[in-house]
Records
---
Amino acid sequence: MSNLIEKVVLVDDSEIDLFIQKRFLEVFNFSKELQTFISAKQALDWLKSLDASQMPELIFLDLNMPEIDGFGFLLHFSEIPEIQRQKVRIVILTSSNSRSDLDKALAFNNVIHFITKPLKQGDLETLKAKLL
C-alpha cells in the first residue's frame, strides 16, 4: 500500500498561504497530485465538473474567504451528488481557533479534522493515519 494520498486539493484565498501549504505538502511528500484554488467558487466549479472516480481524497479548506467562505463551500459541496462526494474527506485549515467554528465545521459529514494554521508535520501524520 502506498503511503501517499492520491489527490489533494488546497482552497485558500491567500496566495501566500497557498504557496506555503503547497510547498509544505510537497516537502513531506504527502500526495501524488496536488491542486490549488484561490477561491471556494473556483474549487466548487471544478469539483462539480468531475465524476466520482476523479474526485480528490482530501480537501484542505480555509474558512475565512471572500465571496463564498468555508461554510458556504461546505453547504454547496453537500449539494454535489453523494456518489461523487462519498470518498472525499475535508480538513478545515484555518486561522480560526473558535470552538463554535470547530463544532459547526465538524457537523458536516465529510469534515474529518480541524487544524489551526500553520500546517505542521504532526498534522500530516495524523491525517495519513486516518486516511490510510
---
Amino acid sequence: MRDLHFHLDADCGLVSHYPPGKPYDSMIEASFADRWPPKSSWRLEREVDLVPIPGSVMIPDFRLVHPDGRSFLLEIVGYWRPEYLRKKFAQVRKAERRDLILAISERLSLEKAGVDLRDVPARVVWFKHKLTPKTVLAALDD
C-alpha cells in the first residue's frame, strides 16, 4: 500500500456550491466596521476566532489586534430575545476570557432576561443606537 497526498490552496480554482454569506450579521456590526478609523493603530478583523466552551464554540464578531501583540475579542449584543441573552451570557461566563469585550445595547432588558453582569468576566461597553469605534477603543485602554 502506498501513501497518496492531495494538496489544495487558494489558487486551485475550486468553488463552493454554497451561496456566499452576508458580510455582517446586523446593521450595527456593518456600521461599526464601516466607521472603524483607518488610521487607528488597532486592526479590526471579522469573525476570525473560535472560542471553545463546553459542548460548543463561540465566534465573536470581531478581533482587535495591536502591532505590539495585544488583541481583544469583541462581541456585539444588540436586540435579542430573553432566551438568546441568557444563552449568550452563559457562554461568555463559560469561556472565561479576560480578553473579551461585550458591547451591549442599552435598549436590552437584561434584568428581565435574568442576566446578571456582575459575574461576567468580560469588559462591558454600552451603546444606545450605534456602537462607535471611539467607545470600543476607550475600553482597550482600561
---
Amino acid sequence: MCRLMGYVSAKDYSISEFTGPRFEDFAALSAFHRDGWGIAELEAGTSIPTLIVEPSQASESATFKKVAEENKSNGALLHFRWATAGLPVTEGNTHPFTHGEYSFIHNGGVIPATAMDSFIDPDLFAGLRGTTDSERYFATILTQIRKVGLIEGIAAAIRMIREECDYSSLNAMLLTPHAMIIINEHTYKRIPPGETEAYYDLYYRKDAEGVLVASSGWNQDGWTLIENHRALIIDRTTFEIEEITL
C-alpha cells in the first residue's frame, strides 16, 4: 500500500512549497511507506515527464529532501511505496511509471499481479520496467486509452479490473500535459493492520494557485473528501474540476 500526492498549479512551485508547512507531516508517512519514493514532473504543454525515483525511504534520503524543496514545476506526482508482499524493492518497481506524456501512481493491489496481463497491448507489456501490479494497471489504462480516448479509456480499464480481478484499491493519479486525473476506486479488503477504513480516502485542496490532491493520514483540515467510485478530471489551464462516476 502507498501514499499519493499530486498537484497542478498556476506557476512553478516545488512540491514542498505548494503544499505548505504541512508537507513535513505528509513526508513523515514515508517512515511507514518506506519501500521507495518517486516524483514525476510534467510542465503544462510539454510532452516528456521528468522522473526521479529511489528504492529507499524518502524521509532518510538527502535526494528526496533536495528534490521536494528545490525542483519546481507546475505539475507533479509524488509517491511513497509500501511494497505488496512478494514484490521486490527495486528501482524498476518504484512509482511513478511513465509512458510518453503520461505519468502514473497507484495505491492498492490487484492480486495476482499477472491477472491483468491479457488486458495489455503486447508492445506495452514488453516495455514494462518492473514486475508490479501497479505498472500493469497503468498499461491496462494505456491500452484502453488507445482504443477509446483518455477519459473513456480510464473508465473502461476500471470496469474490466473491477469485473474480472481481485483488488483492494485502484486509487491512482494520472498526469498529462493538459489534465490531472484522480481515480478513487477501492474496496475495504486488505486494509493495513492498525489502519481504519479511512486509509484509502483521498482529499483535495483548491485555491487560486491550483489544486493539490493527497492520500489520508495527515492533517488535511479544510480539504474536500473525494467520494469512492469517482474520478476527478482537473483542467491544467482553468483548474476546473469535473467529477464522473466510475
---
Amino acid sequence: MPTAIRDQGLGIGFAVLFVGALVGQSFAGLSVYNEDQLAHGSSPLGYWDFVTSSNFVVDVAENWQSEYLQFFLFIFATIWLVQRGSPESKKPGDEGTETDENQLVGRFSKPNSPKWAKAAGWRRLVYSNSLLLVMGTIFLLSWWLQSVAGTVVFNAEQLEHGQPPVRWIEYVTSADFWDRTLQNWQSEFLAVGSMVTLSIYLRQRGSAESKPVGTPHAETATESE
C-alpha cells in the first residue's frame, strides 16, 4: 500500500463508507418515495429530482445535525468532565483548558507547531477553539437545513390532507419537528455514554479507542503515558 494512502487510511476509509452509504440511501429512499407516490396515484420522481427534493434533504440533514451535535457536546464536555478509567477521558485532576505549556502554545510552541498556536491575541484564541467552532457551525447549518426542508415536507402533507400550511417558526416549535429531532439526539447520547463507560471495562486490542488490554480498569488511559 502506498505510504500516502496508508497514512490517511482512516480518513479515506470513512470517506468511502460515507459516500457509499449516502448513495445507497438515495436509491433506497427513491424507491420508497416512488412506491408511496404510486400508491397515492401520483407520478414517480426521477433520481435527480428526488435527491434535490426536500424529502431527501430533510432525512440527510436530520442525521448530520445530530451527529455534529454529539461531537460538539462531547468535545466540550471532555474539557471539564472526566471519567476515571475511560480512554475517552483525561485523567481526574486535569479538568479545564490546561496551561500554555501543556497545550504547546505561545513561547511553549514547537518549531513545527501551527502558526496560529505561536501567535498571540485573537488568532490563538480562535485556533484554540477552532474544533468546537467548526463542529458547532456545521451542527447549526445542518439543523437549519433540516428545519427548512422539514417545513416544506410537512406543508406538502398538510395540503394533501386539506390542512393549511404552517410558517417555519410554527414548524420548528411543533411536536412533529421535535419528535424527529429527539429520536436522533437520544440515540447519539446513548452511543457516546456507552462508549465512555464500556471502554473502562472492555478492550479491543490494537484500537486507539481502547486502553491496552492489560491496563487496570480504574486507570485512565492518560495515566500510563
